[in-house]
Every structure is written in C-alpha cells, then in structure tokens.
Amino acid sequence: MNKGKLLGLYSLSIAMVALVTTYISFPIAFGYINLGDAVIFSIALVFGPTAGFVAGAVGSALADIILGYPLWAPFTFVIKGLEGFVVGLVSIIYLKEGFKNYKIVLALIIAVLILNAGYFVAAIFLYGFAAAVADAPLNIIQGVVSLALTFVLAPAIKRIKVIQ
C-alpha cells in the first residue's frame, strides 16, 4: 500500500474512533461509556495491528481531549493503542478462518481485559482505589458491548473494501 493510501486509512480511522467516542457516549461519574472500542476492534481486525494501534491510541486520546478529560489522554493513548494492536496482531494470523473464529473472540476478550485493567490502574493512580472499583463495572459493560458490536461492524467495514 502506498504512503498516500496509508495516510488516508490512518486519518479516516482516527477520525472514526474520535467521532464515535465523542458523539456516541454516555457520561458517568469518572468519565464516560462509549462505543469507540467497537470501532478500534473493527479497524484492527480488518486492517491489522498498526492501524488498530494508531486508530485506538490517537483517536481515543483525541476524544478524551475534546470531551474535557485531558488528564486521561496519556493513559488512553497507551491502553487503547495496546488493545488495537493486540486484536490486529491476532487478526493477521487467524482472520482468514472467519470473524467468529474462537481465536479472534479470545483476542477481543484479551483486549477487553486490557481495557479494564488499564483503566483500573489509571483510576487508582488518578483518583484512588475506591474510584477505580466504582468505575470497573462500567468499563466491563463498555468492553462487552463493544465486543458484541464488533461482530456487526468489522464484517461491514471489510465488505466496503476501502483499500484494495
């Protein structure tokens, strides 16, 4: 893929994550629940680990800044980038067997665990253990909902054939 197409893919992916995270979100006490993870997972599955990392890290951190949570942006950059990278890495090996392959499902579950563990540690660092415990169930819900939506969104993105 040439540099221009790659730049376009990364830019579009970052924008999709930032827009979905920003505008399809539900505020809570210590942040918000959003559907951006479904976009990160889908991009990672369709376009691989680098696209998953870039979209997750930059798009999600940008959304934190836009939504007024700049304190979370560095944590989000690492957490969402890592989850996108992990899903993308597994997808290049196992996606040929289909989106519902158990190894793809396992990678998505690992990504949800990265999401939850990462934000749990970040919340402890920023607000203390009690806040992290209070926030954890909402992150679990966000991860599970995003995982489920990925099985609808990723095949739809793949069918579009954005990049040949």
Automatic annotation (TrEMBL):
Q: Which InterPro entries match?
A: ECF_substrate-spec-like
**Membrane-crossing residue ranges in chain numbering:** 6-26, 38-59, 71-95, 104-130, 136-157
Q: Which Pfam families match?
A: ECF-ribofla_trS (PF07155)
Q: Which residues form the signal peptide?
A: none
Q: Please provide the record's keywords in A-Z order.
A: Membrane, Transmembrane, Transmembrane helix
Q: Which GO terms describe its cellular component?
A: membrane
Know the name of this protein? Uncharacterized membrane protein
- Source organism per UniProt: Anaerobranca gottschalkii DSM 13577
